[in-house]
Design goal:
- By secondary structure, the protein is of the alpha/beta class.
- Helix content is 40%, strand content 24%.
- It has three domains: 174 residues, Molybdenum Cofactor Biosythetic Enzyme, Chain A, CATH 3.40.980.10; 83 residues, Alpha-Beta Plaits, CATH 3.30.70.2860; 152 residues, Alpha-Beta Complex (Maf protein).
- Helix 2 runs parallel beside helix 6, helix 3 packs across helix 4 and helix 9 packs parallel to helix 14.
- The longest helix has 21 residues.
- It is globular, with a radius of gyration of 27 Å.
């Protein structure tokens, strides 16, 4: 068994059916890779005891080290612990101290409610198991190991609880057994928007980072297009941490020098946060007027903690009467040019700036579909305007379904503000 290789099994019917996106697997893979621990296989199974047992048994036979998420709750579909206990030949026993903690936590939250008996199942622990403390929820995690050194770490499926337990309990335990690898898998991402994947590839050309036979040129470059733009990700593998950091940082700097103005941030950067930070630097306030995005632009901004010192508010002017009454759009321009037009976008941006007293007004108006388009104004047509020291509007034509079109419109509006303020 390689002590730095682990298999990951995520458990839940909701994952198989597509009702829940498996963000846990991605997070665990990233965190372990940064410590030089390799996820060699990822498996997802439903809430069936036999299937859980088969998946875990096969993973133990291959790798001897398994992490699971999900199935530790109090309901009938939470079968992870007993399924894995049977593999190790262990009986389930009630831990009275854990049961008491669960009841105390319940009464603190629901003082007038009776503690459900089913919740005591969360305190049932396989014999000989090590408890992984859950400081972010109720279900304890489990570390179960046999006399051959094979182990399974069972964590909750709730992302917030899993992330805390991974950092505080599981990762230290793995590192204690595996020792220091001396190498890591380290990635860096440059985030771009407003430019197509193919256009970036043409700008960069082949082997942009250098000869693949050299250390710097051996860093793989991945193009990751999405609704909000194209991420450029470089990855260093099997290198010492300090050396990996230097090579990744140099590669990101080199990429930024080529893609230039299209780059708005690195790694997990959010364009809304970038815009808010720029407004703070310039001591400017911001307000929005939205039509087709229906509040999505305001939501992007208010999702950022502390945005209230910059973002004053907005108007969802979906109907033309609202555009006229609240934003001062003229009836003549609506009749002559239509709601999706440059004059209307400019008046919306000017109107929200005047009505709120903001330093910067931004507006979005467009046709999100799936109906409502014409040959002259097809679905996906957007007009975005920014009114600050000067007023400017820009026409966009974006693709996708209704949700994607609205998301792309909000991103385009944020990017217009960023570019307008980058001149300040």
């Amino acid at each position: 068994m390689n002590p730095r290789q682990v298999e990951l099994i995520t458990i839940g019917d909701e994952l198989l059916l597509g009702f829940t996106i498996d963000t846990n697997a991605a997070h665990i893979s990233r965190v372990l890779a940064a410590k030089g621990i390799e996820i060699v296989r990822r498996t997802t199974v439903g809430d069936e005891a036999d299937k859980i047992a088969v998946a875990v048994r096969e993973a133990l036979d291959r790798t001897g080290a398994v992490i699971t998420t999900g199935g530790l709750g109090p309901t009938g579909d939470d079968l992870t612990k007993p399924s894995i206990a049977r593999i190790f030949g262990r009986e389930m026993k009630l831990d009275e101290s854990i049961a008491a903690q669960l009841e105390q936590r319940w009464r603190a939250r629901f003082p007038t409610s009776v503690f459900p008996a089913t919740n005591r199942t969360q305190a049932e622990i396989p014999e000989g198991a090590q408890i992984l403390t859950n400081r972010h929820g109720s279900a304890p995690g489990i570390w179960l190991e046999d006399d051959r050194g094979r182990w399974v770490a069972m964590m909750p499926g709730v992302p917030r609880e899993m992330r805390g337990m991974l950092a505080e309990e599981v990762l230290p335990a793995i590192e204690a057994r595996a020792g220091s690898a001396g190498t890591v898998v380290l990635s860096g991402t440059l985030r771009t928007t407003g430019i197509a994947e193919s256009a970036i590839a043409e700008q960069l050309g082949p082997n942009f980072l250098g000869d693949p036979r050299t250390e710097a040129g051996s860093l793989p470059l991945a193009y990751l297009p999405g609704v909000n733009g194209v991420d450029l990700r470089v990855t260093a593998k099997g290198l010492a941490p300090d050396r990996a950091k230097i090579l990744v940082a140099d590669a990101i700097l080199k990429l930024r020098s080529r893609v230039g103005a299209y780059a708005y941030g690195e790694d997990e950067a959010d364009l809304a946060a970038v815009v808010l930070d720029r407004c703070r630097e310039l001591k400017l306030t911001l307000a929005v007027a939205e039509s087709c995005t229906g509040g999505m632009l305001g939501e992007r901004l208010t999702n950022i903690p502390g945005s209230s010192d910059v973002f004053l508010g907005g108007v969802i002017a979906y109907h033309n009467d609202v555009k006229k009454k609240l934003l001062g759009v003229t009836a003549g321009d609506l009749e002559k040019h239509g709601a999706v037009s440059e004059p209307v976008a400019l008046q919306m941006a000017a109107g929200i700036r005047e009505s709120t007293g903001a330093d910067v007004g931004v507006s979005v108006t467009g046709i999100a579909g799936p109906g409502g388009g014409t040959p002259e104004k097809p679905v996906g047509l957007m007009w975005v305007a920014v009114h600050a020291s000067e007023a400017k509007a820009r026409r966009f034509h974006v693709g996708g379904d209704r949700a994607e079109i609205r998301q792309r419109a909000a991103q385009a509006a944020l990017e217009m503000v960023r570019r307008a303020l980058s001149k300040g």
